[in-house]
């Protein structure tokens, strides 16, 4: 049997094409949600027309602060044992596989749960590395742990395959990321917005929002950018909380050319992206989406593990004011044709999972 274990909005978006293909082929699967982020998942489920979770490991408020993590992670680890209802009655040691995705705490929780149950673990978006355990933190450590806990590694390209070649695992090059399939579906179905020219800001990484000095500096840059362009700043719950705690939210709110928006449904957000002039983000998924759309994208990080768009439409800021200025002075240079291609990473993964149907 196939179990899908995830906990964040981004993970659900990237897993949705796989879940949709499984359903279309009449293959049953057990959908386990860790409870890490539950807000807005109903919109994603509705957009992609997939089933809701069969089981929530924890059921409470979203995990928006570091202080909430220990208790939530403890519950995830203690409530996924052999007697847990989350495994749909499957016995310990059964020939099952647990699909986990990416580099979140839910990824690690799912991989550990699979190991304890004696199930195989398949890691999607595997092999990505920064080669710096502190950047991004804790994502790089989670990746390293998950590579070793999993027995099947689905890598988005040959570089990622090479990064895990020494581990002697079953590796498959999926010829891209499942985000390609998600973006293709979303853009096809989304409503296009008729708005004056605007750019989008989306920030959520720990390394940015929990570094007080850096977050203040980023807010200053966003305010500077808003003097030239209309800005829509998408509010991730942890980001909004930090901005409010540091009295930065009111500073942004006072700017006439900045609109602070609650997170949107994925298809609506994709429609917004398709009409934007630029994207400023620290999210890997956003970077991938922008590369498929040919959207000028400034990544607010020192480095990225993802090859998508780099050297084409994507610029890594390295928190360098000169790099940021150059990007906005030459936006047209970074506007490219959209590239979706015919390949489907999700189809490759589902085909490879055939022995678990």
TrEMBL record:
Q: Which ranges of the sequence are coiled-coil?
A: none
Q: Which UniProt keywords apply?
A: Isomerase
Domain UDP-N-acetylglucosamine 2-epimerase, chain residue ranges per copy = 23-352
Top-rank taxon, per record? Bacteria
What Gene3D superfamilies does this protein map onto? Glycogen Phosphorylase B
In its UniProt record, a GO molecular function of this protein is: isomerase activity
Q: Offer one Pfam family short name for this entry.
A: Epimerase_2
Family to which the UniProt record says this protein belongs: Belongs to the UDP-N-acetylglucosamine 2-epimerase family.
Record PANTHER family: UDP-N-ACETYLGLUCOSAMINE 2-EPIMERASE (PTHR43174)
Protein name listed in UniProt: UDP-N-acetylglucosamine 2-epimerase domain-containing protein
Which organism is the protein's source? Marinobacter confluentis
